Amino acid sequence: MKITNRLMSALVAAAVIVFVTVSQSQGQGSMNVSVNTYAFNVPANLPSQDPYSAQNLENILQGMQTGNWPMGSSLTPAYAMPITSGSISVAQTIYTPLTYSWNGASNPTGAFAAEHGQLLMFGGKITDPKAFTLNQVVWWLTFPNSTNTGTISGGYSQIGIGINWGPDGIPGTADDITYTSGNENTPVNEVLILYTGWGMKPPSYGDQGPDGAKSYFDALYEGNSYFVGGGFALGDKSDFLTIQVQPAPEPSSIMLGLCGGLLILFWRKRHL
Question: Based on CB atoms within 10 Å of each CB, which residue in 4, 102, 140, 219 is the most buried?
Fold first, then answer.
């Protein structure tokens, strides 16, 4: 039930509408430490399997670092924009490993033709002028009736980057050192990551396509709202996002599959 290591992602929307309200709480913590959490809708494909997913991750990391949004073209899965509208569709959390889909629709076209759905992912920007290591960063992921937490391990590969600000201690100058893999114990001043997330796979591991996942979702929650949250912490400073999801009723003609799955995602240790 994990998903860690995701470099870039993309978007996909769909049939059963889920209204999501986003609220954010930020801990007090140390004065010089900064922790900011963001929610994104990203392509379900791993960056190593999809150039759009890799570019999506790059766009997300750059956007979190600079604060410039959106990043990339909305006409491709590489598009990156934090979820700020307060709503999201259940179709945007559906992963179809055996069929192509986007926004909950089968057989997408154009730049989306090779996509296998989308995921809801949480990213973080963590900074400290005094330096810290990646494995000191704590993550949280909450969903109905469960809370998951831990420290980040395995290095930066496919989850993001770490930046040491160099001898001058100033970000964005020539002596900065950037780490893109390994180095989980290396001192850095800035971490930009896309680490935890939520998704659904259709019953029978994709055989029923997006409709199977959406009907499974509605039956599972019986039309009630639920919450998904994610966040990060360094020391006593934390930032956590909570998303309230309210599924809209599906037509009764859609059959519920007997088998299905919710995915808690941590890209490095992904169990599908």
Answer: 102
pTM surpassing 0.85? no
What pLDDT digit, counting tens, does each position of 87-97 carry? 777 778 888 88
Spatial CB neighbours of 253, under 8 Å, sequence gap ≥ 6: none
Model confidence pLDDT, tens digit, residues 116-143: 999 989 999 999 999 999 999 999 998 8
- Spatial neighbors of 198 by CB under 8 A, at least 6 apart, are 93, 119, 120, 121, 141, 143, 228, 262, 263, 264, 265
Phi, psi of 263 (to 5 degrees): -110, 125
Whole-number Å distance between alpha carbons of 92 and 42: 8
Least Cα distance to 194 among 62, 59, 57 occurs for 57
Tokens linked to 179: 């780490």
